[in-house]
Amino acid sequence: MRWLGHPAVKPVVFVLWLLPAAWLVWAAFNDRLGANPAEALIRSLGDWSLRALVLVLLVTPLRVGMGWPQLARLRRMLGLFVFFYASLHWLAYAWFDMGFVWRDIVADVPKRPFILVGTLGWLLLLVLAATSFNRAIRWLGAARWQALHRSVYAVAALAVLHFFWMRAGKQDFAEVAVYAAILGGLLGWRLWRWLKRPMRNGAVGMVSARDR
Amino acid sequence: LPSVRSTVAGAQAPDKLTSYEHASTYNNFYEFGTDKSDPAAYAKTLKPRPWTVSVEGLVNKPRTFGIDDLMKLSPMEERVYRLRCVEGWSMVIPWVGFSLAELIRQVEPQGSAKYVEFVTLADRNTMPGVTSNVLLWPYVEGLRMDEARHPLTLLAFGMYGEVLPNQNGAPVRLVVPWKYGFKSGKSLVKIRFVEKEPKTAWNIAAPQEYGFYSNVNPDVPHPRWSQATERRIGDEGGLLAKRRKTERFNGYEAQVGSMYAGMDLKKFY
């Protein structure tokens, strides 16, 4: 897996991750989103947010488990793509479903708690994106920064709950179960590693502090 | 499917028709899957012929109709109805069929018959969705006797001048235009006259969300979303089209409102 360290990998991944958004914009303007384009767009953006979340949470297990250290330098960009798709997802809801009528949005959210849950997840992502640059790490200090950025695990939980609740009306949980299993596995792997961490000289969580 | 223009009051909605393309590719028909595109993709396996509809229960003349005999029961009429889905979208569809009342008259319901139960096909061999436990199969719906006898309540065999495509409920379905779409069962196999309010599929699945009546009502929100507005499929502007205001009884209040006089529609949602 030496090629993972190639300088072209990062720009290629960047372009690849822009493709779904580019396709959706093209499809929206060319009437290719089917009978209910607003719904199709909002849901696709939600799907891609989840996929981006799965991918960024895969980085550490692959890096550690497979021994691919080169993946580390992709992590910030992949994390920002989660924020990118989640932002488009929320924006598409506010615009195409609610017409940017804030009074309606405020009335809609308590009726649809799954939107509140999704919004909460997005706000957390906003905080993480806003503190994603190097100077923020220095300001906060590595330990505090890392503690803060562990809240991506909460984002994963909120995202699954959001998706579950959205589908609850249709009692259609097959797809939800797939994402829940994958994200659960990725978080479970971290929990397992944390429980197995060596406890020497009272240095609690040395390993987990280094390899998030 | 030849037909004459219906003269029943309210049967010619002035709205612009939804395209056949949208009406036949954006469907809820869970027997073929829960995705809107599933019915169009998988309903090819449904065999609309031979087909029988058994009419039974509290009637003097119970009878099993072959589909061709059923179609000859009364002259076919074309009716343009608005269709409002409980999910918040709507279409305008030209159906072909005749009032269910014509069939009801033939079988002579007894005085004790207060409700009509509609049972739809649940065939594991041809319907991939029936193996999932999304709903209790077969899909059952029901109407109060006066609702079933209302001239707007349509037994439909076609749409857009043609026989129903499988994904829209071939060979025969119900269309109740003032109620949310799920009240209108597709691919009917049994019509039963009963004394007690039937246990309907969605009411069993989520009683606090889907009541027996399920009349379109902008003032009674679904527990998880507002019903005040709807997205008309195919509206100009596509993505940017504004949602429309939903009307009481889907705009059929003049025709059907009297049936619910004095009823608390928030309680009987």
Account of the protein in words:
Chain A: It is found in: Cell membrane; Membrane. Chain A: The chain crosses the membrane at residues 12-29, 49-66, 78-96, 116-136, 148-167, 173-192. Chain A: Its main location: membrane. The complex is a heterodimer of chains A (212) and B (269). The two termini of chain A are 21 Å apart. The relative contact order of chain A is 0.10. Chain A is mostly helical and 212 residues long. Residues 205-210 of chain A have low confidence and may be disordered. Chain A contains ten helices and no strands. Chain A has one domain. Chain B has one domain: Alpha-Beta Complex (Sulfite Oxidase, Chain A, domain 2). Chain B has seven helices and 13 strands. In chain B, the strands form two sheets. In chain B, strands 1, 4, 5, 8, 9, 10, 12 and 13 form an eight-stranded mixed beta sheet that branches. Chain B has a five-stranded mixed beta sheet with strand order 3-2-11-6-7. In chain B, a hairpin with a 2-residue loop joins strand 8 and strand 9. The mean pLDDT of chain B is 96. The A-B interface holds A 28, 31, 33-39, 41, 96, 99, 107-108, 111-114, 169-172, 174 and B 22, 25-26, 34, 36-37, 89, 132-135, 205-206, 209, 221, 223-226, 231, 233-234, 238-240, 242-243.
Compose a concise summary of this entry:
Chain A is 75% helix and 0% strand. Chain A has 212 residues and is mostly helical.
Shape of chain A: globular
CATH class of chain B: Alpha Beta
* Sequence of secondary-structure elements of chain A: HHHHHHHHHH
Rg of chain B over CA atoms, rounded to whole Å, is: 17 Å
As for the number of domains of chain A, it is 1
The CATH topology of chain B is what? Answer: Sulfite Oxidase, Chain A, domain 2
Q: Spans of chain A of 5+ residues with little confidence (pLDDT < 50)?
A: 205-210
